[in-house]
Amino acid sequence: MNPYLLLKPALFSLDPETAHNLTLKLLKLSEQTGLSKLSAASNSDQPVTVMGLNFKNPVGLAAGLDKNGDYIEGLAALGFGFIEIGTVTPRPQAGNPKPRLFRLPEHQAIINRMGFNNLGVEHLVNQVKQSTYKGILGINIGKNFDTAIEDAGLDYLIGLRKSYAHASYITINISSPNTKNLRQLQQGDEIKKLLSSLKEEQLVLEKRQGRYVPLVVKIAPDLNDEQIKHIAKLLTEFSIDGVIATNTTVDREMIKGHPLAKEAGGLSGAPVKEKSTYVVKALADELNGNTPIIAAGGILSAADAQEKMDAGASLVQIYSGLIYKGPKLLDEILQNK
Fold first, then answer.
1. How many folded domains does the chain comprise?
2. Which of 15, 79, 156, 264 has an alpha carbon within 20 to 30 A of 181's alpha carbon?
3. Which pTM does this prediction carry?
4. Which residues form the domain of 16?
5. Is 176 annotated as catalytic?
6. Per residue in 19-38, pLDDT tens?
7. CATH code, domain with 103
8. Annotated catalytic residue: which of 176, 268, 276, 320?
């Protein structure tokens, strides 16, 4: 039985952002009442060690679903091998004007231009402190929308310092298309300067806190081969612990002609699968196993997840697939491992 499929028509009749918030509240309630066992993955203990961390299984939840760490237990009850919360910014911010979330069921896709709406890093840290979750927890950090791009590094340093003691790993999100100029940080000297600064701070924090927390960089699917090679070189140069490939795409070729194709924002779901897998494979070729790859983008079946693994990923993350297939997608992937 897939309880989510019974709820899905009602959820899809609602505004996407309303449905998103309601789903999280229902998840929290189902965990508290024990009903989440009906949707939990039945084969979730498939241990794997990546970045020196022991994951319950290789299938995680991508950042963006639980931006503030308000629903960690409810999500964990589904059986994920790891959960990534955020993106969180130093200061709370409302994000972009509504509407900012759109479903494209014909393409099993989503367009979002949320704009890092969150309650700020202090709130997220407090939620993590109160959580009883003992699994692998990633915290995804970004910059505030009104922080000048030349000062972005300062925002990431704040996020790193405040999150360090509470995260299993920390993701540096420099690839969202919904914060002006953010993707500029993936290019040329910008990324070199940022990674250098964050790596230096990571080592300072390790000494101060007596604990090493891996740093992961999340990149876009819209990079060309030269940019991918440049990033791979810097990941190695600065001993970055992992890379997430990929974020959402700004490309609309895959949904050309759709009424929502001209909506601004990042496109996720099935249409980004091929672009994402290409980046995973290109990175794997450059990194030669030196830096683990976490694959995200267009995973809507066990076959999609396996394709990412075959391309060179050590772990995978799902998000849009969860919206369209429900928690049973996690079960399906793990049953086929």
1. 1
2. 15
3. 0.97
4. 3-335
5. yes
6. 999 999 999 998 888 777 77
7. 3.20.20.70
8. 176
